[in-house]
Amino acid sequence: VPSEHRWLPGFGFGFGSQGKAADVKVGYVRIYEFNTKTVEEFRWVTKQLRKAGVQVLVFDLRDNMGGLLSAAVNLCETVLPRGKAIVNLEGAEGAIPTIRSETGESVVGKTVKVLVLMNGSTASSSELTAAALRDSGNSLLVGTQSFGKGTIQAIIRLADESAVQITIGRFESAGGSKIGGMGLTPDLVMANLPTDEGAVAP
Question: Per the residue annotation, which of 124, 125, 136, 146 is the catalytic one?
Answer without folding.
Answer: 124
